[in-house]
Amino acid sequence: MTTSIRTEFYFEAAHQLNLSYESKCENLHGHSYKCAVTISGGNDELNQDGMIVDFVQFKKIIKEKIEDRLDHKYLNEIFEVNATAEYMAKWIAEQIDIGLKENNIPASCTKVELNETAKNMAIYEV
Predict the structure, then answer these.
(1) Which residues contact 3 (CB under 8 A, 6 or more apart)?
(2) Is the whole-model pTM more than 0.90?
(3) Residue 42: pLDDT band by 50, 70, 90 thresholds?
(4) Contacts of 43 (CB under 8 A, 6+ apart)
(5) Which helix (H) or strand (E) holds 110?
(6) What distance in Å separates the CA atoms of residue 50 and residue 12, rounded to the nearest whole number?
């Protein structure tokens, strides 16, 4: 059995894609990203307070590993590949896992849902 917690956050960023076909996304443009992150740990991995981690600490990891690095940034200067929603969802999961490990939290990121528009979402799920 697995126990999970989920939180959402938002950030603004700009990028332009270098694609193998003609697209308006090759032009510089921005998005108001909405991201939901789920972390999971087994029932045996709840801490002495009965939690995977306190939401305050979870949100601190997100702020340090994601928001501080991406919010109001030009993503082409951060990533060496196209900053697609799919790529970024996977990258966010990896960064969350790094933050959990650094804080000795026995959990892992199991799902990232990244909306780059109100209608378009990439999902990375482990």
Answers:
(1) 40, 41, 42, 43, 45, 46, 52
(2) yes
(3) low
(4) 1, 2, 3
(5) strand 108-115
(6) 34
